[in-house]
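Protocol step 4 of 5: obtain the predicted structure for the target chain.
Materials: sequence only (see below). No template structures provided, no constraints applied. The aim of this step is simply to have a reference model before the mutagenesis design in step 5. Sequence pasted as it appears in the construct record:
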Amino acid sequence: MKCIFCDEKIKEQSFMESENFIVICDISPTVPGHSLIIPKRHISSIFELNKKEIIEMFDITKKATKYLLDFYKLTDFNLVINQGKNAGQKVNHLHLHILPRNKDDSEEPADIPLKVAKKKKIFDRKILSENEVKKNVNNLKEFISQQ
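Step 4 output (structure tokens):
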């Protein structure tokens, strides 16, 4: 089975990249701005990253998170890695979720990653259309270019 994060088409969802990582808008966002940091090479675990890649991953995560918070005018966020099937990992390719947070998006803010991983229906997680994803990507690229 082909990995969806290794498919060239994934770049259409990307609004940032570094040498070894891309940042994409999630097509089924839990909260507005839900984005993913994805290694360009196919790996399934954080344990497969070398020291240089770990530093680069958190550097791009820091930059992308700051842009997302500024764009959505928020201050809070969750960073989540679901590692393995029992932890809720759906795609066997390492990815880190950035979840910009708003005081109104949950009764218990810290529970969002766990509730999503356990498939509890606290959100109507629709899949965005190709045009909605492109609009989000273009808006974020435009915002970042003005910073």
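Step 4 remarks: Confidence is low (pLDDT under 50) at residues 117-123. Strands lie at 14-17, 21-25, 35-39, 76-80, 96-101.
Proceed to step 5.
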